[in-house]
Amino acid sequence: MVRIMPSLLAADFANLQSAIESVPGADGLHVDVMDNHFVPNLTLGLPVLESIRAATPMMLDVHLMITDPDRWAPAFAEAGAESVTFHVEAAAAPVRLARELRARGARASMALKPATPIEPYADLLPELDMVLIMTVEPGFGGQKFLDLCLPKIERTRALLDRVGGDVWLQVDGGVSVETVERCAAAGVDSFVAGSSVFGADDPDVMVTELRRLALAASA
Ligand SMILES: O=C(CO)[C@H](O)[C@H](O)COP(=O)(O)O
Ligand SMILES: [Fe+2]
Q: Rounded CA gap, 72 and 199, in Å?
């Protein structure tokens, strides 16, 4: 199973509706929330997420790059996001937070920056529905994929296989036709792609192409 989730960060924020409609074949829409504290960039918050929710039945995959996810993440679940990702570097109580997200009907997901190891968080995995391994430093779209993240992706895949269940493994940052196969071969099943999708002549064709390459390369 492979999921392709275009990141609206690379879309025209004045034309989100048409961006959403340009990727009908996607498995979900990735929404990047940045607070200019956890990362040096500012994007959108709850009101915009609520408008996106009202505009589409597609799965909403919210990626919170904010300093206080313990306080804010549950509200994104209540606003109708099917998946809410918090950064473990920012969460004060990740187990409690994951349980609060699940209690609100959302998938609970934990993100790691490129230099954050997975091993200290291995015991948290049964509390989660997805692990997001950042393959760029969070904050901006259009950055170059960091190959140094691949060993961590492989180690995370091995840990998830040991835990069992249906915990998704996602990558975000620099995912394109150049890099998607390496990620799939390392065990990734969920791919965020911003500039490669919305920078393509036909975003939906790119979604199909990324899925084809990932499926072919999946272990
Ligand atoms: O979380 C993010 C940045 O922090 C974005 O989701 C990510 O960068 C997607 O953009 P691109 O595919 O262009 O790298
Ligand atoms: Fe993201």
A: 31
Q: What are the pLDDT digits (tens) for 143-199?
A: 999 999 999 999 999 999 999 999 999 999 999 999 999 999 999 999 999 999 999
What is the reported pLDDT for 219? 65
Ordered by where they begin, the domains of the chain are 3-217 (3.20.20.70)
142 is in an annotated binding site: yes
Active site residue 172: yes
* 63 alpha carbon – ligand 2 mean position (Å): 5
Q: pTM value?
A: 0.98
What is the rounded end-to-end Cα distance, in angstroms, of the chain? Answer: 11
Residues with CB under 6 A from ligand 1: 7, 9-10, 30, 32, 63, 136, 138-143, 172-175, 192-196
* Residue 52 Cα to ligand 2 middle (Å): 16
Q: Which residues, other chains included, contact 105 with Cβ-Cβ below 8 Å and sequence gap of 6+?
A: 77
DSSP string, 127-162: G-SEEEEESS-TT-SSPPP-GGGHHHHHHHHHHHHH
Contact 3, 33 (CB under 8 A): no
Please say whether the beta carbons of 174 and 123 come within 8 A: no
- Residue nearest to ligand 1 atom 4, measured at CA: 138
**71 Cα: distance to centroid of ligand 1 (angstroms):** 24
Catalytic residue among 61, 129, 172, 189: 172
**CA-to-CA distance for 26 and 6, rounded, in angstroms?**
7
